Amino acid sequence: MNREFTVADARLAVCVATRGRTNSLLVLLNALERIQAPVGTQTVVVVVENDRYGSLREEVQRRSRAGHKFMYGLEPRMGIPFARNLALRLAMTEGADYIAFIDDDEVPEHNWLAALWDKVRTGQYDLVGGPVEPFVSDTPRSWFSRQIWFGLLEQSDTSRKKAMCKSLDGLEHTIFVPTSNWMVRSDFVRQHALEFDESMGFSGGTDLKFYRELVRIGGRVGWTDAALVKEGLSHGRLTIGYQYRRARDQAVSNFHVRHPRITVPLFFRGLIYSLGKLITAFFWLILLPLYRGKALLRSVKGFGQAVGRWHAIHNRYAEHYRTVV
């Protein structure tokens, strides 16, 4: 059984891996300075910059000198898992009992960290997460962008409701918890030598692999609707092309995480899956006049998932995160 900390002796770390998103990162850091910390806990914010130059070092250190507990790390090896692993190591070096992650394009609600901490502490969990809602700073310009935006809102709302239902039904262990809103117990990570797979440098899916491994070895997973973060979407992500590529690359990465080796039966199941997704995509395309944003996004994602599964069963890999959007 996990040790339950009292609020007087817990150390928490909030980790951010960042690359090429200076403006959104500064918004996040400002929010983290104002966030409601759990009563009696000690909190440090660990910022790991994933580039070769360390352009954000002075900004993070300036905040630390101003009285906020910030820590900076530089990871010159390019790729999300390298930066996340360095953040884990730095947080554990600081003595963090629990480690939270949030993306550099997100903004947490004021009670976010307190909600995660309350859930993990009272429920004796090894990993907990919460919902992520999209937002845009201004109205999308084109009709297609607006429909993609409406579709993403509907998708986010549906995912959140499904997670809430699973939580109420005692099925929290079946809810995938990504690093976009995530808190893990350090002792569990250390005991089982858990880390993000660095062979998946730009592909994405390393948080899914981490989650699956944690569950496989007996980690307890929880979810709380109270720990909300909001993800800022640039106009570049509100395009048909981006949503297609994202769905395609996620399908590739998720397949390889779940199936390290491609067998003949798996190959043919993949063909059937791709055909089914193509049929579904055309179905939603027909419904576009009725359901607009919902139909457009589901159709685009269906085409992407069909092509992604085709790529995966032919042993191709994604590099979705080589370019920052």
Topology record:
Elements: E1 11-18, H1 22-34, E2 42-49, H2 57-65, E3 70-74, H3 80-93, E4 98-102, E5 106-108, H4 112-123, E6 127-129, E7 132-135, H5 143-168, E8 181-185, H6 186-191, H7 206-216, E9 221-223, E10 229-232, H8 240-258, H9 264-286, H10 288-291, H11 293-313
Parallel strand pairs: 1-2, 1-4, 2-3, 6-9, 7-10
Antiparallel strand pairs: 4-8, 5-10, 6-8
Helix pairs in contact: 5-11, 8-11, 9-11
Describe the protein.
The protein is an alpha/beta fold and about 325 residues long. The N and C termini lie far apart (about 40 Å). It is built from 11 helices and 10 strands. The strands form 2 sheets. A 7-stranded mixed beta sheet has the order 3-2-1-4-8-6-9, sandwiched between helices. Helix content is about 50%, strand content about 15%.
Mean pLDDT: 94
**What order do the SSEs take from the amino end to the carboxyl end, as H and E?**
EHEHEHEEHEEHEHHEEHHHH
Q: How many DSSP helices?
A: 11
Strand fraction: 5-15%
Q: How would a crystallographer describe the biggest sheet?
A: 7 strands, mixed
With strands numbered from the N-terminus, the spatial order across the biggest sheet is 3-2-1-4-8-6-9
Helix coverage percent? 40-55%
Question: In a nutshell, what does this entry contain?
Answer:
The protein has 325 residues and is α/β, with parallel strands linked by helices.
Spell out the key features of this protein.
single chain; 325 residues; alpha/beta; 7-stranded mixed sheet; 3-stranded mixed sheet; 11 helices; 10 strands; 15% strand; disordered N terminus
